[in-house]
Amino acid sequence: MRIGLYPGTFDPITLGHIDIIQRAMAMVDRLVIGVAINRDKAPLFALEERVFMVEEECREIAARVGGEIVVHPFENLLIDCARDVGAGIIIRGLRAVADFEYEFQMVGMNRALDSSIETVFLMADARRQAIASKLVKEICRLGGDVSKFVTPAVDAALVRRLRRKA
Known about the structure:
The protein has about 170 residues and is α/β, with parallel strands linked by helices. It has helices spanning about 15-25, 45-65, 80-85, 95-115, 135-140, 150-165, and strands spanning about 5-10, 30-35, 70-75, 90-95, 120-125.
C-alpha cells in the first residue's frame, strides 16, 4: 500500500490545500493529512477545529476518488510523523519560488534523518498559487470576501471567528 503524508497547519484549509490533496490522491492508496501543532505559530483555530474542517472537506474527495484519507494531528518531527503513519512519501505543495527555498532545506534535513522517505512536490494550480492561509485570514479580518479561496463551510467559520474577535 502506498501511503503519503501531506503535512501543514491548515489554519484554515484552503482551496489550494484541497487542490494538492485531490492530486496527491492519484499517487497514493492512503493519504494522511498531518495537521501540525506548531507552538511557534498562534493559530486562529484550535487543533480540534482544524482537524474537523480538514475531515469535513476531505470526506467528499475520498468518496469521489475511492482512496482513503486519514487526518492525523502531530507535534513531533515531520520525519517521525511519516514513520509513525507508515508513509513512504511526504507531499508538499509549492506556490512560488519563496516556498522552494524553505522546502529545499527541509528536504535536505529530512533525507539526512531518513533517506528512505521521499519528498514529492506538487505545484499549486495556477488559479490557486496566490492562496495562503495567512492572507486569507487577513483579508477576512479586514472585511474582504474570501469565498474564492476557501469552501463555503470554511468561509462561514472564518467570518464567525473573526467577527467575534473584532
